[in-house]
Design a protein that fits this description.
The protein has ten helices and 13 strands. With about 300 residues, it is α/β, with parallel strands linked by helices. The chain has two domains: about 220 residues, 3-Layer(aba) Sandwich (Rossmann fold), CATH 3.40.50.300; about 60 residues, Alpha-Beta Plaits. Strands 6-7-8-3-9-10 form a six-stranded mixed beta sheet, with helices on both faces. Strands 2-1-4-5 form a four-stranded antiparallel beta sheet, covered by helices on one side. A hairpin with a 2-residue loop joins β9 and β10. The two termini are about 35 Å apart. The structure holds adenosine-5'-triphosphate. Adenosine-5'-triphosphate (ATP) binds next to α1. One of its GO terms (molecular function) is ATP binding. This is ABC transporter ATP-binding protein. Belongs to the ABC transporter superfamily. InterPro entries: AAA+_ATPase, ABC_transporter-like_ATP-bd, ABC_transporter-like_CS, P-loop_NTPase.
């Protein structure tokens, strides 16, 4: 797979505060890459540097092999972006905004496509001053997509969107990725990107803490059996005595490595006279493993 975006050794300080530390990653053609990290981790700073909006102190950024710098924007010709807040002119209609962003060739068709895909038909010809937060956000996303870019950079695009709009946005991203468009999408909530991203970059205090596929990240947390009993604290003691590992201390959660562990757990509970009321396979807790990863990285530094 060809790397459309390549970022290497990116350093950035604001005054005496270093906010990016040797950031390296790639985005391949047709991949959706999630950039996830807590508030202030440096997500927007990375995106602004890629877009040549702020100068990096060190490192290289290349799009389709062409270098980007604050004075060299040629590589950004086929890049669409929404960074922080959409730029909205209150007295223009949504359609007029899109006309500013769409190249002349097939302008009308491209605008109609994106308006339909994002379900903006009802208000696209009204002036933007009447738009809700979510409508403005959608207009910002439409601006990023309207010119058929090869690479789309979206900073927290789900902000302000209702669940239906989030679903529509996910669908449009997946459709475009299938057609070969690459995406770099930031969020401070990992689970927000669970259904849309192929790959994940986890960023903390300007360091890339983990880079993997979303599938590998989900599997790395493992699946757990949640056992409901009549007496959970006695159940935990019985399991500890029988050397059955627990996934965490909040409930009777047994990690699934193989079914033998579940058998051992159930036998230990039955032997201790604890009634098992229910056993369910629980969804992997993505947010918890994200927080664990950040905590581990903090300890290591
Ligand atoms: N122009 C600036 N001047 C000084 N400090 C800045 C500037 N821009 C960003 N920072 C600092 O750099 C750090 C990273 O900020 P950045 O906006 O990149 O984080 P983020 O991960 O996008 O956070 P959020 O999720 O809150 O948007 C923060 O500590 C922020 O205060």
């Amino acid at each position: 797979m060809e790397n459309l975006l390549k970022v290497s050794g990116l350093n950035k300080s604001f005054g005496r505060k270093q906010v990016l530390h040797g950031v390296d990653f790639t985005v391949a053609s047709g991949r959706v890459v999630g950039l996830v990290g807590p508030n202030g981790a440096g997500k927007s700073t990375i995106m602004k540097a890629i877009l040549g909006l702020i100068p990096a102190d060190a490192g290289q950024i290349a799009i389709a092999g062409v270098a980007v710098a604050i004075t060299s924007h040629q590589a950004l010709k086929h890049v669409g972006a929404l960074i922080e807040y959409p730029g909205i002119y209150p007295f223009l209609t949504g359609r007029q905004h899109l006309q500013l962003f769409a190249a002349k060739r097939q302008r009308q068709t491209h605008i109609d496509e994106v308006v339909t895909d994002l379900g903006m038909g009802d208000y696209i010809d009204k002036s933007a001053k009447s738009y809700s937060l979510g409508m403005k956000q959608k207009l910002g996303i439409a601006q990023a997509l309207v010119d058929h870019p090869q690479l789309v950079i979206l900073d927290e695009p789900m902000n302000g969107l209702d669940p239906q709009a989030v679903k529509e946005l996910r669908e449009i991203i997946r459709r475009q990725a299938q057609a070969g468009v690459s995406f770099l999408i930031s969020s401070h909530i990992l689970s927000e990107l669970e259904k849309v991203a192929d790959d994940v970059l986890i960023l903390d205090h300007g360091h890339i803490v983990q880079q993997s596929t979303m599938a590998a990240l989900i599997n790395s947390g493992g699946v757990v059996y949640v056992i409901k009993t009549t007496d959970d604290s006695a159940a935990k003691q019985a399991l500890a005595a029988a050397h059955v590992p627990l996934a965490d201390t909040t409930a009777v959660r047994v990690p699934i490595t193989d079914s033998v562990v579940l058998n051992q757990a159930l036998m230990a509970l039955v032997k201790a006279g604890i009634a098992v009321q229910d056993v369910t396979k629980a969804q992997h807790d993505l947010e918890r493993s994200f927080l664990d990863m950040i905590a581990k990285d903090k300890e290591a530094r």
